Amino acid sequence: MIELHDVWRLYHMGEETINALAGVNLEISHGEFVSIVGPSGSGKSTLLHIIGGLDSPTRGSIVVDGRDLSKASDKELSSYRNKKVGFVFQTFNLQPTYNALENVALPLVFAKVPLGKRNQMAREALNTVGLSDRVRHKPGELSGGERQRVGMARALVNNPKILLADEPTGNLDSKSSERIMELLTRLNRERGLTLVLVTHDLARAKNANRMLQMHDGKLTESADFR
Amino acid sequence: MSFLDLLRTAFSNLRRRKLRSSLTILAIVIGAGLVSLLVSLGIGMQGFLTDQVRSVVRSDVVMVASNPDLFQLGLDGMGIGGKPQQISGNQSGGFNLEPLTTQEIQEVQALKHVERIDPFIILQADSVRLKDSQTRFRTDVTPQPEYDMELIKLVAGRKFADQTHGECIIANQYLDVFGFNSPNEALGQEVIIRVKQAVSLFGLPAQANEYSFIIVGVTEKTLTSTEIIVSLTDGEAMSRFWANTPDLYTEKIPPAILEVKVDGSQYTDQVAREVKSLGLSTVTATDMLGIIGTIFGIVKAILSAFGLIALAVASLSIVNTLIMSVYERTREIGVMKAVGASKGTIRILFTAEGAAIGLLGGAIGVAIAYLLGFAIDRIARATFLKDFQTIHVSVFPWWLIIGVIALTTVIATLAALYPAHRAARLDPIESLRYE
Predict the structure, then answer these.
(1) Residue A218 belongs to what H/E stretch?
(2) Is residue B89 part of a domain?
(3) Taking Cα atoms as reference points, which of A177, A171, A199 lies closest to residue A34?
(4) How far is A173 from chain B (nearest CA, A)?
(5) Of A69, A133, B270, B317, most Cβ neighbours within 10 A?
(6) Is residue B240 part of a domain?
């Protein structure tokens, strides 16, 4: 269960103060698939970062499974990011010098999983995303869709409860996008992963159980859903 | 992150940027190599001089002089730019020697563990030549008690007793100037040693006398290359002429310096202490080695200072390299944080990279210095030191190897602290957006 109570996130840009989030209240249940749409700069990513423990609210609280992230230390937050959530990025954020297996295994390094176990788990995750034949390939040798699947395997490798995807298909052609979306929905359905998807593609957003709209840091349940 | 992964990651990150890592490591290599090579040469030199002292000064001998501060005359006594020093009591204002009294000699003789005492014979010879030649050479005539000769290593011939008359042992280096092809050729030859009276030192009219000696032994090569060893009996006779005092080394004019043989080197310090308590001054092999140790301590410190400067410069290069690396890897740091790396993990990761640079640089530097030292050693012994086969010009004790590697690792780790701090402080969201 993810609960946000009156979450504000302010940025100072010179003299100006920007309200990236302006009093967001939100509850997401276990296993839910929530999509967040809105124009760029509306605060979608900030919301995702706060849910993922990469950023902290200026005001308000975020509680995940009873734990208040806004009061957590850096160490607690990093452990939360490591074990509870998986991030999928628009730009994949793969390490170009690492091969697929090493990229996927990275979270396990910080989880202190021994090398042998790590490789086994990373292989399984690559298997899940259908890339068991690309284990030794470096990102440069993979197509865009394949790279994103490596990114997803990395997000999944530590068996998180929550998957946070920030425009995961933003850099992909429609065929690859289709495949990634299928994979995400399947993970949500079959594994019961809580999935939060940020996108500005309305068609994709409609795959979710619930669609939220973000505008100027404020969140509204979308009226024209379905 | 486990320690093993930390090492693995640190080294693989260095491998990823081969050229830059190599250059940074090279800077450390130069510093570490300089420090270890220079110190190893210092150690080699000190070892050589220590051996030389040991071969000349026995560890069971105490040199005794009347003047209580004869051997303590140092720079502080010269008062350069300072106030003129007051001379207290019986002290002397300059370097001088006074004869010991018969009573003092008897007191020393009576001390426990004193085996025998001999006068230290002071003598300056004018020159030496072969009997049938007029070509003269400089020489240091050193009359030695029989037991002292135990330390001398001969390449030919034999030694002699205290009462011997007219026999000598020559330093190896004379073979060449006298025109002998082998040490054995010199044996049985006659040399003439000329002694000019000491007053000639002050420009006063002086007589000269010639003494004839048969060469009975030739030493191996040492630093004392102009030494000619004669018996105490001959030495006393020459010294009396030199000083123009027939009573020297008799009860009328006892010697100024005594060579006191102790019946075991473990008693040397004890006897030296007891002699001092009689109001006399002493010098032992330990004292001389101590002086050599002090001098070389300073020499080594100065030499390693050069290397340390190189290391300081190298550490700046580490700071630079790692800051660049933090910039380049900003996005990577963001990803690492996103997948669960804490600030502490990022910090230790970059610190470990610095440490790895230091460790590698130190190890390679010491290894190169070791090889260079070995080469210098070989070259030196093949050329200008070819007669001193026991010398090791460059010596690498284990503490030098470990110490230098530890030093570079610590310096590099310290240099990495600031870049590591910057990396740890990076905002993950900003980092993920970084292009």
Answers:
(1) strand A218-221
(2) no
(3) A199
(4) 22
(5) A69
(6) yes
Choosing from B249, B264, B284, the residue where a domain stops is B284
Q: Is residue B261 part of a domain?
A: yes
Looking at the structure, do residues B304 and B324 belong to the same domain, yes or no? yes
**B179 and B299: one domain?**
no
* Percentage of chain B modeled with pLDDT above 90: 51
Residue in A54, A88, A117, A150 to test binding to B, most B beta-carbons within 10 Å: A54
Count of domains observed in chain B: 2
Q: Which two tokens stand for residue A133?
A: 């034949």
pLDDT of residue B75: 44
Portion 50-69 of A in contact with B at CB < 8 A: 52, 54-55
Whether this prediction's pTM lies above 0.80 is answered by: no
| Kind of pairing between the strands at B167-170 and B227-230 | antiparallel
The ipTM, to two decimals, is: 0.93
Are the beta carbons of B340 and A107 separated by less than 8 Å? yes
What's the average model confidence in pLDDT over A55-80? 92
Contacts of residue B78, defined as CB under 8 A and 6 or more positions apart, other chains included, come to none
pLDDT in tens, B167-203: 999 999 999 999 999 999 999 999 999 999 988 888 8
pLDDT by residue (tens digit) across B19-30?
Answer: 989 999 999 999
Angle at B96 between CA B95 and CA B97, to 5 degrees: 140
Distance from chain centroid for Cα A225:
22
Whether pLDDT at A223 is above 80 = no
For position B69, what pLDDT does the model report?
Answer: 60
Tell me, yes or no, whether B229 and B279 share the same domain. yes
Residue A162: what residue type?
I
Minimum mean pLDDT range among A108-112, B69-73, B403-407: B69-73
Whole-number average pLDDT of chain B: 88
Between B291 and A100, name the one with better pLDDT. A100
Average pLDDT over every residue of B313-318:
90
Spatial CA neighbour of A168 closest among A199, A140, A193, A143: A199
Minimal CA separation from A73 to chain B, in Å: 10
Instruction: Identify the DSSP state of B17.
Output: T
Same domain? For B257 and B404 the reply is no
Say yes or no for a CB contact (<8 Å) between B340 and A81: yes
Question: Looking at the structure, do residues B328 and B303 belong to the same domain, yes or no?
Answer: yes
- Whether A75 contacts chain B with CB within 8 A: yes
Domains for chain A: give ranges and CATH numbers. Answer: 31-56+78-221 (3.40.50.300)
Domain boundary among B284, B307, B340: B284
Pairing mode, if any, of strands A218-221 and A210-215?
antiparallel
**Residue B45 in domain:** yes
Kindly state whether residues B28 and B64 are assigned to the same domain.
no
Are the C-beta atoms of B107 and B260 separated by less than 8 Å?
no
The boundaries of the domain holding residue B374 are 3-54+292-433
Which residue in the set B4, B9, B342 is minimally distant from A75, CB to CB?
B342
φ/ψ of B308, rounded to 5, equals -65, -35
Cα–Cα distance measured from residue B263 to residue B267, given in angstroms and rounded to the nearest whole number: 7
